[in-house]
Amino acid sequence: MSVLIYAESAEGKFKKVALELASYAKKVAESLGTTVTALTVNMTDTSELGKYGVDKVLKISNDKLNTFNAKAYADAIKQAVEKESAKLVILSSTTDSLYTAPSVAVALNAGFASNVVALPISTSPFVVKRNAFSNKGFNQTEITTDVKVIALAKNSYGLKEAQGAATAEDFSPSLNDADFSLKVENVEKMSGKVTIADADIVVSGGRGLKGPENWKMLEDLAEVLGAALACSKPVSDLGWRSHEEHVGQTGKPVSANLYIAVGISGAIQHIAGINASKVKVVINTDAEAPFFKVADYGIVGDAFQVVPQLVEKLKEFKTNN
Amino acid sequence: MKILVCISHVPDTTSKINFTNGDTEFDTNGVQFVINPNDEYALTRAVWFKEKQGANVTVVNVGGAETEATLRKALAIGADEAIRVNANPTDGLFVAKQLAEVAKKGSYDLILAGKESLDYNGGMVPGMLAALLGVDFINSCEGLEIEGTAVKAIRQIDGGKETISGNLPMVIGGQKGLVDEKDLRIPNMRGIMSARTKALAVLEPVGAELATKAVKFEKPAPKSACKMISPDNLDELIDLLHNEAKVI
């Protein structure tokens, strides 16, 4: 009857979204009068999950799962659900989890709701609130199947520490060759940099910066904040920055705690992609830029003066705090 | 190669989003509908396979009669024929089951869909369709090459990309990058004329229970006005971010 989560990890550490998922699942499990079981893959030390409310950990150790494989992971999650007789599966909204989630839902003949942004509105019937229409509306969705799958939007619940420790046991789902029919030939991944998907703070630059040679100050700003760097569509189209950094409707979605837009006017397609971010700061020379309408804090000013000053002041702030 | 492209009929990004009937329905009044942008990348790649590798391209949509204009646009862009499953697409699993029926009947080699639609942003249907058909699935695909039955695809991952190989039949959840944006097509007059005479079949849905239902919609709380800070007073910004917003 427990609530089952898949706790994502990378390079031997749980991702922050996994701890958020544990925090959220604990609260939901309490209202259902049950416990939280977490599935982990190739993690040795899983004790951290207990601090965020997980009661039991099912540890998979299998070298074939070192590279993410949506089909095999879905198969493993399904078997864990059956073993635990779980009625609710909660996944995060990373690229990998959203890749495997639909297969999990089909395997369990479960209704699936993604982009969930809050605790369930009610548990019987089971109704969740979801982002829709590119963050321009919310949709309350009832899941009517016996087993239910939901995916929690990043940064929508936060981390909540709990009292307790998780028990751990080894789990060896039976995976067959068909699970591995797709082969990952090559992985290119930024190392040592905060990715847009994982970042709490994102610093983003637009055409207002006039050219790629002016990005150093944004890199400095990102560094002092521990932020990921992003850019608007024109900047990526002009080749000033790599396509990897393009955020917006057709680029990567951003749901950061803090989004700082420098020299971006705020086209509707850009805002659609970043609007799930909690706090938005806009720095622009044009007081009429549409971005100010959706921002929390705005500075009308020249980025070439404001940003370097801000970097210096933030360095000072970081030393004192 | 027979290709099926799944098309969603969605409000244009610039549309005002409103709800009606006691906030239980999306208000389509005055809304311009378009081919879902992620689907448009998928469709354009399919048409490329048609022109360069002799593929045959069918487009399919689950929706009411009002979505036929969107299917005609897909035909004008270059698809050979269209299918509309006459049902309201409210639940991902239900839609995937309808598409699976169409896919089985047509025995397609490749099924392309956008990785998510712009209206409900669910991102569920392509993966569910693959699972229902028991075929391989690559999501967030931003590059696709096919030689015979061999597939080579680029998948976007958090912080990078990976190259995946496999074999048809397969379902692909596509996005920007499948084709360059400059290669997206605006239908020309010849395309629009020929689209009028291409086949558009209407099928009744197969019975499938709804696994989810939209109970109610709401709009985000009205935003409080942006606090303006003088560029000469950046300490105030830092103070607000630290003490008020608590994000640094």
Account of the 3D structure:
Chain B: Keywords: Electron transport, Transport. The complex is a heterodimer of chains A (about 325) and B (about 250). Chain A folds into two domains: about 5-180, HUPs (Rossmann fold), CATH 3.40.50; about 200-320, TPP-binding domain (Rossmann fold). Chain A has about 325 residues and is α/β, with parallel strands linked by helices. In chain A, helix 3 crosses helix 4. Helices cover about 30% and strands about 25% of the residues of chain A. In chain A, about 55% of the residues are buried. The longest helix of chain A has 18 residues, at about 305-320. Chain A is globular. Chain B has a single domain (about 1-220), classed as HUPs (Rossmann fold), CATH 3.40.50. In chain B, the strands form three sheets. In chain B, strands 11-10-9-12-8-1-6-7-13 form a nine-stranded mixed β-sheet, with helices on both faces. A two-stranded antiparallel sheet of chain B has the order 2-5. In chain B, about 45% of the residues are buried. At the A-B interface, helix 3, helix 4, strand 7, strand 9 and strand 10 of A face helix 3, helix 4, strand 9, strand 10 and strand 11 of B.
Short description:
The complex is a heterodimer of chains A (321) and B (248). With 321 residues, chain A is an alpha/beta fold. Chain A has helices spanning 16-32, 47-50, 70-84, 95-107, 216-225, 233-237, 268-274, 303-320; strands spanning 3-6, 9-10, 13-14, 36-41, 56-60, 88-92, 111-116, 122-123, 126-132, 137-143, 148-152, 167-170, 183-189, 201-205, 228-231, 258-262, 279-284, 297-300.
Ordered list of secondary-structure elements with their pairings:
The complex is a heterodimer of chains A (321) and B (248).
Chain A: E1 3-6, E2 9-10, E3 13-14, H1 16-32, E4 36-41, H2 47-50, E5 56-60, H3 70-84, E6 88-92, H4 95-107, E7 111-116, E8 122-123, E9 126-132, E10 137-143, E11 148-152, E12 167-170, E13 183-189, E14 201-205, H5 216-225, E15 228-231, H6 233-237, E16 258-262, H7 268-274, E17 279-284, E18 297-300, H8 303-320
Parallel strand pairs in A: 1-4, 1-6, 4-5, 5-12, 6-11, 7-11, 14-15, 14-16, 16-17, 17-18
Antiparallel strand pairs in A: 2-3, 8-9, 9-10
Helix pairs in contact in A: 3-4, 5-8
Chain B: E1 2-6, E2 9-11, E3 19-20, E4 25-26, E5 33-35, H1 37-53, E6 56-62, H2 68-77, E7 81-85, H3 92-106, E8 110-114, H4 125-133, E9 136-147, E10 150-157, E11 160-167, E12 170-174, H5 189-197, E13 200-203, E14 212-218, E15 227-228, H6 234-244
Parallel strand pairs in B: 1-6, 1-8, 6-7, 7-13, 8-12, 9-12
Antiparallel strand pairs in B: 2-5, 3-4, 9-10, 10-11
